[in-house]
Amino acid sequence: MNLNILVLPGDGIGTEVTREAVRVLRRVAEKYSHTLHLTEGLLGGIAIHKTGSPFPDETARLAADADATLLGAVGLPEFDNAPPAQRPERGLLGIRKVLGVYANLRPVRTYEALIDSSPLKNERIRGTDMIIVRELTGGIYYGTPRGIQGEGDEERACNTMTYNRAEIARIARMAFHLARQRRRKLASVDKSNVLETSQLWRKVVVEVAAEFPDVELEHVLVDNCAMQLVLNPTRFDVVVTENMFGDILSDEGAVLAGSIGMLPSASIGEKKPSGAWVGLYEPVHGSAPDIAGQNKANPLGAIGSVAAMLEYSFGLMEEAKAVNNAIESVLNAGKVTADLKPKTAPLTTEQVGAAVCEAI
Ligand code: IPM
Ligand code: MG
Fold this sequence. Notes:
The chain is α/β, with parallel strands linked by helices and about 350 residues long.
């Protein structure tokens, strides 16, 4: 198979973990006789430096031409005080929107080998296995009006959280389908005791549920969900929620996995005529400027995102499984980076990437 992939390493540790993810892709292509066509593009802070824009038109063109996009992370501290429209993060929001990848799947698992890496008690987190399905192209991240106006005591900032029926129905449907392939339980997370957007969310989710009588649906308020995630995480199978709630809850979920460096993600949109999903694949973590350039970032979230790409955008289930099994065997062998608090000397980013390739 021809695999046309756009690689956007981005900023900070994004470049380091993406290098290892690409190394794993090459290994898979070699072992299973696929032809890789890799193109590299600019996104985020590096794109601002080189072109003046966090999401250059050229990157949009390359993404439209590729079968799938692999992304590292964006964000540089030098832009911390820049207005949102001129920040690296705007590039990420731009590419998500242009590709129309409205469903962000963030699997959260507690691996037995990493159970001591989490600060939570073993018996609480053992067996955790859920997918957070985050709506990715709507809500307060994109709503208008937005902005800052006025001066002095009158200076005022505004953002808008907005959803329409179609946006809610399609993400709900995606989540129900996923639940059907798993333990058939869906938790829809909202704040319907306060927000109108959440009231519509709940109403539409209930309507869509009628198409999936075999899936058990529960509604959980977002504040309670934040608590349940650490009190009783094994009760969750698929969790579906709006953009900002999903952003926040998935970082909390990282504590269940031992480190945010472990979490992969797949952002998918419409199916193409070929049956493959349009997809953007990125680890959940950010650019971590504090450890950038030190060859110590955990590449497993990025490598797990490669597995997700093989599965969703190319339908290569066996290859995806080979990558996930290799991740698991590397964990079992204790060959991990410092964030996972290994008992022996931590490995470098590069060494973990090489260990995964060897295990494939
Ligand atoms: C994530 C990140 C991004 C988001 C940032 C970098 C814009 O936190 O993917 O979770 O908020 O979506
Ligand atoms: Mg986030």
